[in-house]
Design brief:
Elements (H helix, E strand, L loop, with lengths): L1 E8 L4 H13 L2 E7 L4 E6 L6 H10 L3 E2 L1
Antiparallel strand pairs: 1-3, 1-4, 2-3
Helix pairs in contact: 1-2
C-alpha cells in the first residue's frame, strides 16, 4: 500500500468531507482521512492497481481544487 497527502482547497463541512471520501474510494482508495481544518486529505491506495493522478482527478471532479 502507498500513502499520499493532498492539499485540497474548498472543503468546509461534513458534506465536503463525505464527497471527497466517496470520490476517492470510487477511484480505488482503501483508506481516506480528511482534515477539514488543515485542508488536507491523506489517502492510502494500491499503487500497482491505481494511479495517483486518478485520485487527484476524483477530488477535482467532486468540486474541490488540489493545490
Amino acid at each position: 500500500m502507498t500513502s499520499f497527502t493532498f492539499d485540497v482547497q474548498g472543503m468546509s463541512c461534513g458534506h465536503c468531507k463525505s464527497a471527497v471520501e466517496s470520490a476517492l474510494k470510487e477511484a480505488g482508495a482503501t483508506a481516506v482521512d480528511v482534515d477539514l481544518e488543515a485542508g488536507r486529505v491523506a489517502v492510502t491506495y494500491d499503487a500497482d492497481k491505481y494511479d495517483l493522478n486518478k485520485m487527484r482527478d476524483a477530488i477535482e471532479d467532486a468540486g474541490y481544487d488540489v493545490a
